Amino acid sequence: MNRTHRRVPLVIGVAACLVAGLAACAPGGSGPSTSASTGPVSKTVTKDKITLTVWDQNTDGGIDTAQQQLNKAFEAKYPNITIKRVSRSFADLKTTLKLALSGNNPPDVVQANQGYPDMGAFVKGGLLRTESDYAKLYGWNSYYPQSLLKLNMFSSDGKDWQTGNLYGVSQTGELVGVYYNKKVLSQIGVSAPKTLADLESDMAAAKAKGILPLSYGSLEKSPGIHLYGVVQAALAGSTAVDDLVTLKSGSWTDSANVKAAQTIADWSKKGYLTSGSSGVSQDTAVSSFGAGKSAFLIDGTWQEATVAKDLGDSNAGFVALTPEGASAPVTQGGEGLAWAITSKTKNANAAAAYIDFITNESAANTLIKTGNLPAVFPSGYTPPSGTLTGDIDTQYEKISAASSVVPYLDYTTSTFYDTMTAGMQNLVAGQMTPAQYTASLQTDYAAFKKEHG
Amino acid sequence: MTTGERVTARSRAAGATRSAAPSRRPKRSWKAYLYVLPAFAVFALFLGVPTLQTVQYSFYTWDGISRATAAGLSNYAAVLQDPELRGAFLHAGVLMVFYAAIPVLLGLLLTMVISRANALRGMSAFRTVLFLPQVIASVVVATIWVSIYSQNGLLNQLLDGVGLGSLTRVWLGDYGTALIAIGFVGTWLNIGLCVVLFVSGVGNIQPELFEAARMDGAGALQEFFGITLPALRGQIAVALTLTVTSALKTFDLVYVTTRGGPGTSTTVPAFEAYNRAFNTGQVGAAAAVAVILTIVIMIITALIGRLQPKDVA
């Protein structure tokens, strides 16, 4: 066979390249540069003409408007600084930020997601600059409550969360909770729920009247985290969930966690959730709730503007459930993505000045005016009453004061998002029993903990 | 691809024989390599290097950022052992039926019918319509089908309309139907491609053959199996190569319609590779999936190449 002979040099060439490639140093060989000194910091910003590249995920209506206004105001204050804004949706940011950060010319300021999969990995790789020094300088340590600060903290090796250095501060507050339609609730003759038991009896009443109790669409998979989290927080309480997510103690097979899974499986069986939810998009679920087709919706405060527009600010309500025996509501959330400074930036002082500018009290006023929930309310702010905005703000104040916010569950391990969201689809469809579901979470958890050391 | 290679090999052999006929192993001119160099350089830079890098990554445990640690063959072992990854390859196998087998069979059937009306006016417009799905961006296709398969979508309305309301469901959210629903989109996508390929193949058959057959009293079926099918071997091989490859590397449809759900019932290798590389920080495992997928595609393509008639010019 002539052809075989002709191929020999090619094969040898490919093999040679392969060997050379494999013998080269391991990928990501540079390793963390934790020893890099950060130098003295100052509030004085350079007078040189510079460009700050900023990657944010403020793409939704209200927050996008706020960000545009804030950037404009910042450029007016510092005419020598140009903000180059790169805005991406949360999912797009999550998948592209890692590559951008590990390049030689990363953005100066980025919004990094909290927890082990993102911020922890970035810190471990030496890609983010600590903001502890700037926090002292700008007074962030006293502006933010400890419960919010610690979510943005990591040990300098990226191993321990909620302790060590500060790697960012947040602009907005976030809560996951139960939206309800006041008109529908009065139609079925029940009052707004405060506890999980209330919610269950309200949903039973809705079902009896032929109204869909809870709009739920998990085609994008992530809503499963919110549904499970709301029930789990109400059953397990804040300390247990917090310890679990931060790898301190506990197991996903603990009785409260299994009971939460059982509760959701029961809801699904009783027809409380949108049928075929795994094929229904989150947007569809939100808009069907907005159209008055269901009594409840479990989602985050970032849906405030949409729900208020669809149902009317005074016809929609929002509540975070209070666990039995607890004095304050407990739920997932806390704050929006952290505004972090990259370790390769040449303009750390300007970056810090920018971050302060878009998160401080005057920025908070801008956020409120544009229909957003700021991470910290400006002093003297009183939430309006009888509206959705008022409900959300009041709940947020209560939860902040009691420090009873728990982290998003997907922060737990680098693969937890996948494990939990696929598991929730299985649980809701009856493809997994509550015990199998929690066991699959625990398997992921144990493997990560073992690797984590 | 295979055809091109063979032709090159043959003409090269001819050239070499002319220059050094008596020697047993013909000496090749180094100049030939110079001509190939520009193409090879582009290939090496944009395809070769990334491919080799992927192969390299597959031997490491790497989160994409911090220092990687050597993993030996464990990523490959995981692909075989991890039920989720094994499942992904199984799903790709199921999709092959819907993306390749069914479109080719239906395509042949339609060609058999269409080729009898080849003189029909407006034939080219008809072909364009058939080919349309191939031209639409796949994200648009996926979005359209998400709405067709939804609770109040077209499919359920149709079922309700004909009194089969008991069958309605959210097709992409049902464990029994999600994968098949995606597969059917593939069928819809690829059937036009097959028909257009086959119809043009039929056009190349000398009409005298059909005339002779008809004079001998052959029916439509005999005509098809006796003349059309053998003549279409080349087109069938091309159609199979394209459709099987598209089945194996499906990503966009799954990403837009289900994200691998419900549960993990519609995950496919390309989606797993993407998800592990960019979302869950398992770059090594992702690379191993990509390498295995590439090898599988190459093997299957080579096998299909054997269908190709030996004497296609």
From TrEMBL, chain A:
Keyword Lipid metabolism applies: no
Keyword tags: Signal
PROSITE patterns: PROKAR_LIPOPROTEIN
Gene3D superfamilies xrefs: Periplasmic binding protein-like II
Signal sequence region: 1-25
One of the Pfam families matching this protein, by short name: SBP_bac_8
Presence of the UniProt keyword rRNA-binding in the record: no
PANTHER family xrefs: ARABINOSE-BINDING PROTEIN-RELATED, DIACETYLCHITOBIOSE BINDING PROTEIN DASA
Record's protein name: Raffinose/stachyose/melibiose transport system substrate-binding protein
Source species of the chain: Frondihabitans australicus
From TrEMBL, chain B:
Residues of the ABC transmembrane type-1 domain: 89-304
GO cellular component entries: plasma membrane
Region Disordered, annotated ranges: 1-22
KW Membrane (keyword) present: yes
GO annotation (BP), single: transmembrane transport
Compartmental location: Cell membrane
Keywords: Cell membrane, Membrane, Transmembrane, Transmembrane helix, Transport
Membrane association type: Multi-pass membrane protein
Transmembrane segments annotated in the record for this chain: 32-52, 88-113, 125-148, 175-199, 283-304
Protein name: Raffinose/stachyose/melibiose transport system permease protein
Organism annotation: Frondihabitans australicus
Phylogenetic classification of the source organism: Bacteria, Bacillati, Actinomycetota, Actinomycetes, Micrococcales
